Amino acid sequence: MKIEEIPTPFYIVYEEKLRRNLELISRVKQEAGVNIIMAFKANALWKTFPIIKEYVTDSTASSLNEMHLGNEELGGNVHSYCPAYTPETINEYLNGSSHITFNSVNQFNRFKADLDKHNATPGNKHVSPGLRVNPLCSVIETDIYNPALPGSRFGVTAEQLGDTLPEGIEGLHFHSLCESSSYDLQRVLEAFEQQFGKFLPQVKWVNMGGGHLMTREGYDVQHLIGLLHDFKSRYPWLNIIMEPGSAFTWRTGDLITSVVDVVDNQGVKTAIIDASFACHMPDCLEMPYKPAIAESVETDPSLPTYRLGGNSCLSGDYVGDWSFEKPLATGDRLTLEDMNHYTTVKTTMFNGIQHPSIVLCDKEGDCRYLRRFDYSDYKSRMS
Prior knowledge:
By secondary structure, this protein is an alpha/beta fold.
């Protein structure tokens, strides 16, 4: 199939763009001498994993479902981090993980006996325990994505940890970035070393978390590589781990939708589409942000200008405004750009609205369905 032959709405992933990101990530991994692993919280389209695992096989999981997906579909090591493990989940995590990070000293102490028992059992793979720490260095403007806000529930502060690292901890994990630059990482690393550097001789690895948007246009890749080299020169015994989410699938896919009606109320024109911001693009409302539309032009009130309204009954299911060279009409197709990372993983079936199909397009422009949805998908989610 060609793109124009596919009925809307559908998400489309471009193999060529995905490979371009993966090649850059592999370059950083090799030149900096670090381990870069995939975070499923940003993208879990496992039917694209045969492409991804040509470059990366290790992953990070924040749930049992993500852990199982990593083991089944990527096949490498799984680094697990969950804000709180429970007696019902801890052994399943231990059986499926290579590394496990605890969010608090309390959590580590509570499950240390389970960890020790697992690691002492012949035939079991050693699970390396880590502790998440919070350097309290805030470089993120949007509060909902900022784990370093005052009162954050994520990680142990230097004040809480004091002068003693719990016996048995093999690694430290921090996550303070979100779609950030290498210069943001530099600030966080300085805070991390100042507060937690005294513990680094006692551990084997440091996980620098996610948010490293190295595939973004303008990102200073050489500065990142130099920064990592410099860190490794001070702590040559450490295995450095990074788990970017967005970087893997940044600008690798779009959501193609169609205008199904145009309404005009009190001078505001809204083009209603056959998709929904609330259901299919929730970050547009949560963050919020206004996605680029390939067919639009620079906003100009003298041109035909529209909000886009989602096809749900939520009053706030709209984003705008965009200008176009000519008036929109029913049947016009719109390409909402960069709708792969943090999009398909966050969709809902609110209102029972049909989920967009998922399509993969190869470098020759030939497309195939990865998944088509129907009523049974909606009904099977309900009880």
